Amino acid sequence: MTNSAKGRDSFDSTIGNTVVSFINRNVTPYATSTLGPKFDLVPVEDQKDLMVNAARMHAQQEYNRIMELVNVLQTQANDIQHRLDITDQVRAAKYDFQTYHGQFYWLVNDSKHNCTRLCHLGPTNWATAPPAEYEYICKVQWLGDYTWQEVSDESTS
Predict the structure, then answer these.
(1) Three-state DSSP state, 126
(2) FRET pair for 100, CA 20 to 30 Å: which of 54, 62, 107, 114?
(3) What is the pLDDT of residues 80-101, one digit of tens each?
(4) For residues 135 and 150, is the Cβ–Cβ distance under 8 A?
(5) What is the pTM of this model?
(6) What span, in angstroms and rounded, lies between the C-alpha atoms of 149 and 89?
């Protein structure tokens, strides 16, 4: 057998009636003779489909996780916006007493004087009954950051 390349890992091969010189067994990942290990061809298109499906599944999971975080942030932003709206309503309300942080008050619509008032007494705290012209809007609490927050009666009991 001739070896025109004179390489240790190369040899000349006869394919048909033609001599093909210098086939380097180290360069190709495939067997260059029938003495090489048997292997099956990889179905590349099937492998690509599996990879794309796995990538889409993981990306969708990550997208869903991020959207859950966005929903939490949206809820928090809406709560802050509502606090600012309540703060504006309290600032526009009429009252003649000193307010204290952490205390609860009620916003009422006074139809007799056509205004909004901040009141100490809730709808059930009057000795007889609340004034007929008072329509209770909501119960509020003054927070330490100087904003007002609407609170439910269940959370303050």
Answers:
(1) coil
(2) 114
(3) 999 999 999 999 999 999 999 9
(4) no
(5) 0.60
(6) 11
